[in-house]
Structures are given as structure tokens and as C-alpha cells.
């Protein structure tokens, strides 16, 4: 079976540092550009022209002389860096506007630069800095004007409300921006989550399909290969003393295995292509095949009979795993997993240990779990190697290619919250598979969307070949 893998690529992170979230999840501070932008230079030029016009036309103070124009320019030019360093720009504006007002120049000329600096500080946040800076600007302005004239200081306190208006407006704009950014971020996160979930579901579905097709085809093809090899061996080595009855049984077994595999394949395809109706399409002869329920414990005796037809000696305990003596019916999901685990274990035993292998399959219900044990004796005994050599010829006689059988069995066990162990027997030659499947729904840890497990092999014990699914 070709390896199936799906890799979910995570979105590339933005190299630019983002805003720091506050406790409510909103941005505390909007980071500006690292250097001035043309829009900031254009705004600074507009503020300079407006300030110059107010200085020339306004009559609320003395006409600015060279010192006044220099202070007014010093309050305006730093606005180019207002988004890079808002607090430093506001400080520079205050240091120039304070003496400008103290010298009695036209007060209206300094208002545009002050408004832009205060607004920028408020709109970039955070709120605590805005409040402290606004209070400082008001107190400093009132103190400077009171030092010039007490009446002017009181008037300045009265008209300082514009500072509060600008601060509140800037804070409102910042909150709105934070809200819009939060909405966009949640939408992007939800979209990424949907894409990742869709990719994960696609990967899981591909894994499930690969697992089902592997279990379905590997079992039938292995049995057909073994039976064909045995029949070929009988025809080639001793045609004069040919046991026609044994040959006929072998060929009938091949036909039965093909028929069973075809029926299971049809059932699997019906499930994959189902649109809510499992009726036959009437488009071909395969519609005459059964499309019954998915595998369960009632099909395990058939698996044992198929393995026996291939030459294996299979001992099944209990003889009817789904009967009353075995504890009654098992829920469909763990029953299907148990069927596939037994099927793959028998396939591996016949394929890797030869047609003369002796296999013992035992299913026990203990409490709320189903325990499965499948062990074999490691292969043929002295005098029984000829048939095994025929099977080796079918496999090409070369090294065993890693497959996905044991990995698929482990995935099936995990899919129902169970566990599976596979490895060489410690007490005798051979191989053993042990699985524990809970009969009640159990929390299953989610597998990552990175793809299926790597091909796994059956560890080789002393004197035996690696035995791979």
C-alpha cells in the first residue's frame, strides 16, 4: 500500500512585531512605522501653513517676531516623527508652545500643532499614558499662563477643555481601531482553524481509507498468493503423484477468497460512495454481491476458515466470539476494529511464517474491555519446508519490504481508545499480538495532522525473519 501523508503547513508568522494585548485581549499600544512616512511630512506641512496663517491673521496676542516664529517652527517640525515617537514629539511641542504662550504671542497659531500632538498620543495609547500626559499638559499650560497673569491663567484653565476633547476623541478612535483589529483577528483565526480542521479531517479520512484498503486487499491477496504457490508446487514437483483432490481444494479456496475479497471491497466502496442509500446501482454484475454490514466478531470464524484453507492450523477461542457463551454482542466500532486486527494478524502469520504455521486466536471479555491475543509458533517444522519455499518464491525470495500492517493495527486500537502490542514471543519461537479494546466510548487523544505513522516491522527474534505488515 502506498504511503499516504498529509502535511498541514502553518501560516508564516509576520516578521513585524505586533501590538501587545492587554488583559481584555485588545491592543494596548499601536506601533507606528520605524521611520517618518510621506503622509506625516504632508500633515506637518499643512499644520505649518495653518499655524502661519493664524499667526498672521489672529489678533488674540502679539504679532510673532523672529523668536515667536522660531518657537512656532520648533513646535511644528517634530510632528514629522509623531507616529514613530508620539510621547517625545508631544514633549518637544510642549517645550516650544509653553514659552510661546508665555511671551504673549498669538495663541491661536500654536493650537494646530498642539492638537495634532495630543491626538497622536491618545490614538496610539495606552490609556494610562494618555491620561497622565493630558493632565500634565493642562497643568503645565495653566501654570505657565498663571505665571504671566493670574487672570490669563484662570482663562487658560477655563478653555483647557479642548485638550480633554482631543484626548477623548483620540481614545475613542483607538478603541474603535482595537475593536476592528480584534474582529479581523478573530475572523482570520477562525478561517485558519477551519482550514486546519479541514486538512486534519482530510488526513484522517485518507488514513482510514488507506487502512481499510490495506486490511481488505492484503488479507485476500496474501491468501491467494499462498494457495497459488502451494498449487504450483504440487504441479511442478510431483505431477505423476498429483493429489487432484488437494489441488481442487486449493483452487476452490482461491475462488472463495477472491469472492470474499470482492464482496468486502464492494461493501467498502458503498460506504465511501454512500449518499444515504445503500441500494445497488444495477450498473454491473457486482450488484449481485452482498452489501451487508461492516465486519464484526461474527466474521472472525470465516477468517479462521480462510487461513485454514491456506494451510495454517488456526485455533479459535471461543469458537463463536459473538455468541452468548462469549459474553454477547460487542458494540459495532470496537467489533470492527477487533475483526481487522485479527484479520491482519492472521495475514501476517500466513505470509511470514508460511502455510504450515500454527496460530492461536483468543478473545476474552473482561469487564468493559475486549482482549485479543493472536500468537503463532514461528513457522514450519522439520520436513515441512517445501511449501514454505514455494511461498518465499511468491514473495520474490528477497528481503521483506516494510509495510503498514502493524502500524494500521495500532491506529485501529487507538481509534477506539485501546492499546496494541506486537513482537516476538518471549516463551517460544513465534510472534504475538495483544490488543485491549474498551467496549465503552473512551476519550481518544487527537492525532496530529502531519500524516500516518512510519512503516513498522515486526521485530525479528532469534532465528526468525522480520515479519512485516
Which band does the percent of strand residues land in?
A: 5-15%
| Amount of helix | 40-55%
| Shape call | rod-shaped
Largest sheet, in brief, is: 5 strands, mixed
CATH superfamily of the largest domain: Histidine kinase-like ATPase, C-terminal domain
Q: What does this 3D model show about the protein?
A:
- This protein is α+β, with helices and mostly antiparallel strands and 469 residues long.
- It contains twelve helices and seven strands.
- It has helices spanning 38-57, 66-76, 86-102, 111-124, 127-148, 150-159, 161-237, 244-272, 300-309, 332-353, 385-394, 405-415, and strands spanning 313-317, 358-366, 369-376, 419-424, 431-438, 457-458, 467-468.
- The strands form two sheets. The protein has a five-stranded mixed beta sheet, with helices on one face.
- Helix 3 runs antiparallel to helix 4 (111-124).
- The longest helix is centred in the middle third of the chain and has 77 residues, at 161-237.
- The chain is rod-shaped and about 130 Å long.
- It starts with 37 loop residues before the first helix and ends with a strand.
- Residues 1-28, 276-291, 380-394 and 444-469 have low confidence and may be disordered.
- It holds the Pfam family HisKA_3.
- Its EC number is 2.7.13.3.
- This is histidine kinase.
- Residues 1-40, 276-331, 380-404, 441-469 are annotated as: Disordered.
